[in-house]
Amino acid sequence: MLQFLSSALGWPPILAETIEIIESPEASTLILVSVLLGLVVVYLASKLGGELCVRVNLPPVLGELLGGVLVGTSVLRLLVFPSSGAGAEDVVLLNFLQQISGAPDNWMPTIFATQSEVISVLSEIGVIILLFEIGLESNLDELLKVGTKAAIVAVVGVAAPFAAGTLGLIYLFHIATIPAVFAGAALTATSIGITAKVLSELGRLNSPEGQIIIGAAIIDDILGIIVLAVVSSLAKTGEIRPSNIVILIVSSTAFLVGAIFIGRWLNPFFVNLVSSMQTRGEVLVVALVAAILAGLIAQFVRLEAILGAFAVGLILAETEKGEELKEQVKPLADVLVPIFFVVVGAKTDLSVLNPADPVNRAGLIIAGFLLVVAVLGKVITGFRLVGSSTPLNRLAIGVGMIPRGEVGLVFAGVGASSGILSESLNAGVIVMVIMTTFLAPPLLRLAFRGEPTTAVEPGS
Amino acid sequence: MLQFLSSALGWPPILAETIEIIESPEASTLILVSVLLGLVVVYLASKLGGELCVRVNLPPVLGELLGGVLVGTSVLRLLVFPSSGAGAEDVVLLNFLQQISGAPDNWMPTIFATQSEVISVLSEIGVIILLFEIGLESNLDELLKVGTKAAIVAVVGVAAPFAAGTLGLIYLFHIATIPAVFAGAALTATSIGITAKVLSELGRLNSPEGQIIIGAAIIDDILGIIVLAVVSSLAKTGEIRPSNIVILIVSSTAFLVGAIFIGRWLNPFFVNLVSSMQTRGEVLVVALVAAILAGLIAQFVRLEAILGAFAVGLILAETEKGEELKEQVKPLADVLVPIFFVVVGAKTDLSVLNPADPVNRAGLIIAGFLLVVAVLGKVITGFRLVGSSTPLNRLAIGVGMIPRGEVGLVFAGVGASSGILSESLNAGVIVMVIMTTFLAPPLLRLAFRGEPTTAVEPGS
User: Fold this and answer.
1) What is the value of pTM for the model shown?
2) B399-432 pLDDT per residue, tens
3) In A, residues 55-114, which contact B (CB 8 Å cutoff)?
4) Which end of chain B lies in a sparser environment, N or C, as judged by fewer CB atoms within 10 Å?
5) For chain A, what are the domain ranges?
6) CATH top-level class for B122-447?
7) Are B117 and A31 in contact (CB < 8 Å)?
8) CB spacing of B289 vs A458 below 8 angstroms
9) Is the ipTM of this complex over 0.95?
């Protein structure tokens, strides 16, 4: 209310205090120190979790997620974000920092918000680098070859859980149509980051299954964004505006097709440019600029930045600089990608799993239903494929599509903030997202068990 | 005034608006996009400037600084920081972003402040990585061997410009003692980042001259921090508290000696640890955590974080993982270090060089005097060295100590904000810092001209 009043009265000095705190040299130093402390926590969590998981034959990325849960909101609270509802006083490291620095109390909310935002931006840059690297490691021709299969997997994997989830919520749980449609929509989009990372760790990225999963996950991501636009406008206005949806479909198709054609046409220019440059890091920096620009264009047409970075990686892999680029992007990915997975884990609030709270009990029952639909709705996708010339691991394809990750959380976040989802339905969606995200890595390893790998693990 | 009132009344909701803006998903996306746009500008500026400078036989780092000036506060205003007094409405890219996103006006100051802070933190991480890499490329035994020479160069290089500057300002310019002492103190500390980068680019880092310069610059940095503590307390209270100075001297000596002894003792532990790890990027990530922790300890004893990172690089270079680490840190440095130099350039306000403003005219005359003292006071340091077994390029050693860079700007900032320095004296100090920073790279190349290099340029 005060916030509304102050913005209605248009008081610029109200913003000034926080901004002056951000800008003062002492606070800047504290922000830097708090970010560095945050990064130490991130790396300890990622390596501790990753190494433990490797030793019990689980994918390291699961360890990074679990390490994030350990240091995050749910357990140790070393790495906490304001979106969890926490204040600066809840963060152990910031209290410590305030005590040794003697910073005034009224600085701490600003330092907390800024530190969280810096680490969030670093984690976003991390997932952009991850998709750029996955693009570099993928093969465009292979991906186009499996294009039809990937499209079938994607469409089935969106339609099946959406229909089963929505109808189940309406008829089994007697939930009203709009919230049921919204929760059903949250079941659609696969989190490409987690699946791609696990495939890469298993050495399966360039297997036919791996390429189908990646291709389907990309199409899925686009379908998910369209579904989100549809259900959001349905929830807001009670009706669907077809023009918006047509624009989204046209722009995303144009983006992907355009990226491939324009990218291939620009490839000789890229090689000539970096070959003529004489300063350090010319290949990596120019490629990154291209990836960032493509990410910005993707964001501009309302897709995700990671799709642009993936497309640039895919295209640059075809140039004679591709191998050099793969080598150089590795250390960058080693440093930035763990930030993304640890932050995803740290932001996960496991308190929704606590059955002592009655809202959670209702939520857990709904979650059980949503989880079954989420898993089965994707697992069947592989078995929809017919007429493959090579024998495919159909189970692995379906399992690879299971994790909902951050995309599912976006649905939950939009649903909760707009009041469409009831508390228990929201808790159910969050539990479903948590379970699919954490179950997929070990399940995918199981699905591939016993088969020889087709590629070496990158960086091993 | 309003700001003072609001904090005196202790209204937490006043901070809440800005913090809620930072936390909203739409604003978070805008912050990410603005950071990505900022990074594109940084890389274009660094590569454009760097490549042009290489072609006219100047060090690339000068090009990065000049590229930063071009895109920064002084010229194109694509990359502007609130510390320059600019508001969000002065930043071309943010105006563009607001137009295409339709973000409300009251969001823009927060987005501007947060974007600037994220890029500033990235540039600080960049200079930490730079000093870590410089440490890896340096040789601890060589550095200890030239220790006495480095100490002589450092002490002479602090004492001579401090004495000549202070006395000159008092007797030639009739400036009061305390501001004269303050401006004299701003002449003392060498910017290790710029010099080390130029030495590395010239392939001179491991020459005897290079190691003396690096050693002297480190001691210089510590002396500079002590001088700053002394003159700040002198300016604030009119007297000097010897206990503080003793604590600073003891803690900084203990830090450097302790880092070397404890570091060497921990080296086998580091090698064992990373050898037993099985996840990606284990060497680089563990080394970075060590560098960050040492940087935090350095910050805690009131030194700079870069000294800790340098010490860790120096020590880890001695392990069997040193070569692997050097290879892996290169791409990371290629991506992060340019942010630092471009930001230094972008923050440089060339308007103090405009003689149309009367304050600047007085400042330019003082600047001329300070510049002569700043250059000569450091150039003589090499010639203070006697009895070297090998012939040394004494001119190059002195020239290597010339750039004042960010350390000098800290003096100017503290002096101006505490009201000690008059406007013209402040302008004079800033011009001196700009000139020494931009003159040093080409002068150092000149001083080394005609001699064969002793090492290959890293990354070439």
Assistant:
1) 0.86
2) 989 988 666 766 776 676 667 888 788 878 888 8
3) 55, 60, 63, 82-83, 100, 106, 109-110, 113-114
4) N
5) 21-121, 122-447
6) mainly alpha
7) yes
8) no
9) no
